[in-house]
Amino acid sequence: MIDLQSISGESVEQSSFEVRGGMPAQRTYAQRVCREQDTLVTVGRRILAAAGIEGGSNFSIPNGTDPDGGSQVYPGKNFERTRLEVIQRLTPGCRLRVEGLALPSGPNSTTTGIGSWWSDGRYGALVVEVVYSNGINQYTRRVELPVPSSGETNGGEPEAFAGSWMRVLSTIIPHPNEVEDAPAFSGEVDVLVSIISKGSLRLVDAVVYEVPYELHHDDTHREGMIHLAQGNYPSAYALTGQNLPTDARFGARQNLKTLNDQRQLWGPTLVQWSSWDETTAGVTDADPDPLIISSTSFVGLPYSGLTTYSTSNPGWSVSSGGTARCAEWSGILELRERVGVIPVVVRVYARVQTAGDIGIVRFQSAPHSYCDLQVTSTSYGWISGLWWVACPIHQNIQSVLQMFARVVSTDQLWVRYITVSYGGHATLAQ
For residue 118, which of 167, 229, 249, 347 sits 20 to 30 Å off, Cα-Cα? Predict the structure, then answer.
């Protein structure tokens, strides 16, 4: 117990004082103080990735088609099709969880080797793969959630509503907390999240989001995001935190660092797009067919009939961006009582067809607010940039973010995935 009259051997003279706001000091245990700081991480429920049928009229898995015949009509039992990939910065102190809904799985196809395809049972599963990277090392974690097979004729979709027609999927995605350098994966960690259909999965919806977890300290990573000293935590985790009350400054220092590091990530994912089309996706396509742009002037992405920005055009709402503003960005001079501005990271997974050509992807939320990314590689890869996006000051004000793309010369730009997410942690590299 901390004696407020004797700290580090020095006598503290008592004196009368008057409380003028806040909470009066009290005599208590040091462990309680440490745990109060730890609760800073428990607010996270941020969505990082979402995929599903997204309003499509049909699943890519046929409904009741006979699997026995001369051609392949269903995926193989172990064949995997990537529906979505996103890169996000993980909030310190959080790990990932997946929730999903799916209809019973359909049949699988296998070949006899002489040109005919036949039924190979009925299996489907939701697979989520996460690659954790801290810029030095990376670790891959993967979960597979099987969905019970359909009992309908030829493994078709349920013909009538019943309590068992919708399957609920849920599990925690492992965090690399057992590796030797686990403390290095508590803070500045990027995650590459892939949502994958295995076999004949009929996915209605899947969401990968953050849940509070724990952080790790050791002698190398003392500047961790949370103060764990003297708390009741499993001994399996490296906890060589600061000594309280020998040097009580570290408690407040870690508290403020936690708030600073976490608030840089407490913001929404504003846009998430994949070229996956549930109604046209082939049962043998390991990756979604890209959206191909060959115009030398800007055309809408994915709405190719659009050529210029307009608030009446279809697009993505950025109204929730107003809730991500920090206090120092919310004054009268900055907002003019109408417009908010927040930092976002824009990312594109794309390639050009021919070496030497350039593809341009434009993000635009207002006539005066846009960001261009250049694609120059003939191999698929992520291109990212920092953009201060104009957004409303409140989520009930309508807004629209639109995307456009073009090529510089007579070539093609192939685009598979796009994300726009809050980027308070990002820095501009010249």
Answer: 167
For residue 48, give the amino acid letter.
L
Residues contacting 186, CB < 8 A, separation 6+: 92, 93, 215, 216, 217, 221, 224, 225
Q: Which long-range contacts (CB under 8 A, 24 or more apart) does 368-372 make?
A: 370/309, 371/346
**Strand, coil or helix: 128:** strand
Q: Which residue has the higher pLDDT, 320 or 84?
A: 84
DSSP state of 422: E
Most confident of 7-16, 303-312, 318-327: 303-312
Q: What is the pLDDT of residue 296?
A: 95
pLDDT tens for residues 202-258? 999 999 998 877 655 544 544 444 433 333 333 333 333 444 445 544 555 655 666
Model pTM score: 0.81
Q: How many residues does the chain have?
A: 430
Q: Rounding to the nearest 10 degrees, give the CA dihedral for residues 216, 222, 227, 233.
A: 30
222: phi then psi, degrees, rounded to nearest 5: -70, -25
User: Which amino acid is located at 103 in the chain?
Assistant: L
Q: Is 409 exposed, middle or buried (0-12, 13-18, 19+ CB in 10 A)?
A: exposed
Q: What pLDDT, in 10s, does the model give residues 29-44?
A: 655 555 554 444 445 6
Q: Please tell me the distance from the alpha carbon of residue 347 to that of residue 270, in angstroms, as a whole number.
A: 12
For 119-137, what is the mean pLDDT?
94
Residues 6+ apart with CB under 8 A from 392: 318, 319, 321, 322, 339, 340, 398, 399
DSSP 15: -
